[in-house]
Design goal:
Order of helices and strands: EEEEHEHEHEHEHEEEHHEHE
Distance between the termini: 34 Å
CATH superfamily of the largest domain: HAD superfamily/HAD-like
Strand content: 15-25%
Number of helices: 8
Strand order of the largest sheet: 1-13-12-2-5-6
Number of domains: 2
GO molecular function: phosphatase activity
Protein name: Haloacid dehalogenase
CATH topology of the largest domain: Rossmann fold
Radius of gyration: 18 Å
Shape: globular
Largest sheet: 6 strands, parallel
Organism: Aquibium carbonis
CATH class of the largest domain: Alpha Beta
Pfam families: Hydrolase_6, Hydrolase_like
Structural class: alpha/beta
CATH architecture of the largest domain: 3-Layer(aba) Sandwich
Number of strands: 13
């Protein structure tokens, strides 16, 4: 179903409410109307399921607190953080070439991954605001030399506080594919269902008793459907009409979730 305001979401009787973040609850530092009351009212069953790959749950929780959203970090599931945890579990001590912001870099090191290797086993591409053309060339060389490519998510953009597009990891993946069209990668970010499945396991909720609220049918909706969870499409209105959904660079990447 579609709604225009999160206060309209039919969540009565739900055991768990999974919710996207950017474009759904917030846009940059802007909090959408009725979001603070929604978060406070449903704090005991609300789970944030986001393709954010700049933060850990702890850093995001602290940042949300500064704009009046109290969200328990134990209920925040992020593509970047979970990708690092999955790599560390599957390949303990692996040599990792990491393109990411400091919270993700610090997490990788704390989990024993070797991030300074000149011969990486795995390349992890998260959101990296300092990514350059030189980095693009180095990443391509690493993959050509045999490193497995893991991408946190394939969103090309997320909205800033004015609703304008901010480049995301999918934009970098598009650049990689422009250079190497045949490149393959794995990803656990939406539209793959991995984060929703993790939320189901951690919450202990029955699929039929959950909802996923998101603003992007191409990511949130596909992930919810793949996990067997009812999707509520939040279509926020602006002065110029409905906002454009965040585009996906690679529609076929929906099947890219799975083992690392």
């Amino acid at each position: 179903m579609r709604i225009a305001d999160i206060a309209q979401a039919p969540v009565e009787g739900c055991e768990a409410i999974f919710c996207d973040l950017d474009g759904c609850l917030v846009s940059g530092g802007h909090v959408y109307p009725n979001v603070r009351s929604f978060v406070a009212s449903h704090a005991d069953r609300l789970w944030i399921v986001s393709n954010n790959s700049s933060d850990t749950a702890e850093t995001l929780s602290r940042r949300m607190a500064t704009i009046g959203l109290a969200i328990d970090p134990r209920r925040i599931l992020l593509a970047g953080e979970q990708a690092v945890h999955r790599i560390a579990a599957a390949r303990p001590g692996a040599a990792l070439s990491l393109y990411a912001e400091p919270p993700i870099r610090n997490l990788a090191r704390s989990l024993g991954l070797r991030t300074e290797s000149r011969k990486p086993d795995i390349v992890l591409l998260a959101r990296d605001g300092d990514f350059t053309v030189r980095d693009l060339g180095r990443l391509i060389d690493e993959v050509h030399d045999g490193a497995a490519l893991v991408v946190t998510n394939v969103d090309t953009v997320h909205p800033d506080d004015r609703g304008r597009p901010v480049p995301e990891t999918g934009a970098i993946v598009a650049a990689i594919r422009a250079c190497v069209p045949s490149v393959g990668f794995t990803s656990i970010g939406k539209p793959a269902p991995d984060l929703v499945e993790l939320g189901l396991r951690l919450s202990g909720a029955a699929r039929a008793a959950c909802v996923f609220i998101g603003d992007n049918a191409g990511t949130d909706g596909v992930a919810a459907a793949a996990a067997g969870v009812r999707f509520i499409h939040l279509r926020r209105m602006t002065a110029n009409g409905p906002p454009a959904a965040g585009a996906l660079a690679m529609p076929d990447a929906a099947a890219a979730g799975g083992s690392i």
